[in-house]
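2024-03-11 09:14:02 DEBUG pipeline.ingest accepted 1 chain
2024-03-11 09:14:02 DEBUG pipeline.ingest length=113
2024-03-11 09:14:03 DEBUG pipeline.predict start
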Amino acid sequence: QVQLVESGGGLVQPGGSLRLSCVASGIRTSINTMAWYRQAPGKQRELVVVQTYDGTTNYGASVKGRFTISRDNAKNTVYLQMNDLKPEDTAVYYCNSDPRFPWGQGTQVTVSS
């Protein structure tokens, strides 16, 4: 059974940084595509970044150059380093390998002064 647990969110000022973590169980991050998504209030969930098991990475245009995905396969954990945060980055952030898998509870990121 796939389980994903996100953490690391919080309140940060514009221009600040956060690092999100996603601990996966039931799947192996070493052999699976992993992705981060986000959902802002009143909006649909959107793809932030996707990375294949061999490192091919695609970032959404709005986060390219500011966000970085990485993974520690020994810990079965995926990270999202977010720099130069903007108010429009405010959302609940989720990780997943396949949108058909169960979603975790997500972690709230709020960017505000």
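2024-03-11 09:14:41 DEBUG pipeline.report The chain has a mean pLDDT of 96.
2024-03-11 09:14:41 DEBUG pipeline.predict end
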